[in-house]
């Protein structure tokens, strides 16, 4: 009993540190949903241009996924956390000069650097948590960490809305009437709003990095041998390749929807629906994700995961269809409810994609992570459609994403190994 308590105390501080990391990177990632309309105004952008915020962020995840895994294997979990925190802090501090210059590409560079750091942290955190304690409790520790991450994601939109958006929207007609000097002053003031939150975020990341540096963390030794299969070996597992596609469309649809909720709300031109109030629908989306994940623990024990995926895909498709066919608060509420139905899709598609990989599991999980690039590609595609055909039509893209997820739940998940 005393030995168990000793082990618990040994792992408590590392667990708190790693879960704090998950909270802050989820919070930072979901600030982007409010940052998009803010930078659209501050840098005078189209919907397509503003959606590149997500391309910069999730593009960094795509680029860093495999190098981060290699780095952690070479340097260890602790160095992975320190490096990830340091890079993310540099990215956060880059927002200050970006705001000073008001050059959009500088903002995108800052986001890319910050996300590169978070990618290293994310690749580090989940496997490290599974090894901090008894193997039997690994899933519960991961569930707790995911819940804390979801809490950060839920808080982010409301917090960002207060910091970056106006309580009363400045009409575009007012902005159009400004003289060149007045417009420059207004836009500089808008850009300056990003300085305090990102400087504070950078400082928090530096403090956590210093705590990690001076904290004695358990050294986790990987099993000898392990999975050293090459990436090309995974191509014989068709269900895994379909699973990468499922990850692409799942991430793309979710990021695309939350990225455009505020812009969609503005399109209705309802006087009481300011940008700041519209952000509440993103908060509702993320809160329902959290609720869904908690309920998912019980749902997935009672029903086959592929059946749950089919139900969730059809339900999400129905909600987005309703959002397209209706207007105002009801339409926005439908988009928020999508968060509940997609909340447990990730663990389902991951587990189905990794089925029967055996010694190829680590390689398969690395390739699966590449599907996150959907978050970089789908929002700009929606932005282009919004600019050219109208914002309602842009939500056809998430519908296509859920059709693919339906396919994966019906047929794509089935193990089909090429000889």
Could you describe the 3D structure shown?
- The protein is an all-alpha fold and 419 residues long.
- The chain has two domains: 1-222, Up-down Bundle (Growth Hormone, Chain: A); 227-419, MFS general substrate transporter like domains (Growth Hormone, Chain: A, Up-down Bundle), CATH 1.20.1250.20.
- Helix content is 80%, strand content 0%.
- It has 18 helices and no strands.
- It has helices at 2-42, 47-75, 77-93, 95-101, 104-131, 138-164, 172-176, 180-192, 195-214, 238-267, 275-302, 305-325, 328-342, 345-353, 361-369, 374-388, 391-394, 396-412.
- The chain is globular, with a radius of gyration of 22 Å.
- It starts with a helix and ends in a 7-residue tail after the last helix.
- Keywords: Cell inner membrane, Cell membrane, Membrane, Sugar transport, Transmembrane, Transmembrane helix, Transport.
- It holds the Pfam family MFS_1.
- It is found in: Cell inner membrane.
């Amino acid at each position: 009993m005393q030995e168990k308590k000793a082990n618990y105390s040994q792992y408590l501080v590392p667990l708190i540190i790693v879960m704090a990391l998950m909270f802050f990177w989820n919070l930072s990632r979901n600030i982007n949903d409010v940052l998009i309309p803010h930078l659209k105004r501050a840098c005078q952008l189209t919907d397509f241009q503003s959606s590149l915020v997500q391309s910069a962020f999730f593009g960094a995840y795509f680029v860093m996924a495999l190098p981060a895994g290699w780095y952690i294997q070479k340097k260890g979990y602790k160095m992975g956390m320190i490096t990830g925190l340091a890079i993310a802090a540099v990215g956060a501090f880059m927002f200050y000069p970006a705001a000073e210059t008001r050059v959009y590409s500088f903002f995108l560079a800052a986001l890319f650097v910050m996300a590169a750091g978070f990618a290293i942290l994310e690749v580090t955190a989940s496997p490290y948590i599974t090894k901090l304690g008894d193997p039997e409790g690994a899933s519960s520790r991961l569930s707790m960490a995911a819940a804390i991450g979801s809490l950060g994601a839920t808080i982010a939109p409301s917090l960002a809305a207060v910091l970056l958006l106006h309580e009363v929207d400045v009409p575009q007609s007012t902005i159009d009437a400004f003289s060149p000097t007045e417009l420059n002053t207004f836009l500089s003031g808008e850009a300056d709003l990003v300085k305090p939150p990102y400087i504070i975020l950078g400082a928090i990341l530096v403090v956590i990095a210093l705590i990690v540096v001076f904290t004695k963390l358990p050294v986790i030794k990987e099993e000898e041998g392990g999975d050293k299969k090459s990436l090309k070996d995974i191509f014989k597992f068709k269900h895994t390749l379909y699973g990468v596609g499922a990850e692409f469309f799942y991430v793309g649809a979710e990021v695309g929807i939350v990225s455009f909720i505020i812009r969609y709300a503005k399109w209705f031109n309802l006087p009481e629906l300011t940008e700041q109030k519209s952000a509440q629908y993103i908060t509702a989306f993320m809160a329902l994700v959290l609720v869904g994940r908690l309920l998912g623990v019980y749902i997935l024990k009672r029903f086959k995961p592929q059946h749950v995926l089919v139900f969730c895909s059809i339900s999400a498709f129905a909600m987005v269809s309703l959002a397209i066919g209706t207007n105002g608060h009801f339409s926005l509420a439908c988009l928020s409810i999508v968060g509940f139905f997609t909340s447990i899709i990730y663990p389902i598609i991951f587990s189905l994609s990794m089925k029967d990989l055996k010694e190829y599991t680590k390689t398969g999980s690395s390739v699966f992570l590449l599907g996150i690039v959907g978050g970089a590609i789908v929002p700009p595609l929606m932005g282009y459609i919004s600019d050219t055909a109208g914002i309602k039509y842009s939500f056809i893209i998430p519908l296509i994403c859920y059709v693919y997820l339906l396919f994966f739940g019906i047929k794509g998940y089935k193990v089909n190994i090429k000889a």
